[in-house]
Amino acid sequence: MNTPNKYFANEPKQKRSQSRVEKILDTVESISTEAPSKKIDIKTIAKRSFISVGAVYHHFPSVNSIFASLLLRKIQFRIHYLGVLIDSLEPEVSLEEFFDILIDQAFYEWGQKPIAGKSEALKFFYQNAQKPEFLYSYTQSLYPHINSFIERNSTNT
Asked: CA nearest 116: which of 28, 33, 29, 31?
């Protein structure tokens, strides 16, 4: 991980430590995908990743810090992929076409996610729906593009 992460107990500096951290994050992602409602503890993570409990605690102070780091890793991946997508567009692409591409990509990725991820996204949406000033700040600008996506949607997904 290249950017500093405040959720680490000890930031990995060596390649071996970085690969151990990635293995821990991969394990947690795998466990949470297989059984989204299962409670995950350090012992389970250590056992599944073939890393000692002490080594897990060496890098992460708690299970919550592992989930926070996993979320940050996913966000970093999304940002990187978004950059690749933007770089692949021609300069002549209009802002409307650009938003349509982003919306199409978001719905494609939504279709690829496990049900637990969708549940979390919906929970976030409804949680913030209670705060109209927050919700409207981003939905108003996206609504015309989402509406055009719905009109173009021939598969009814």
From this structure: 33
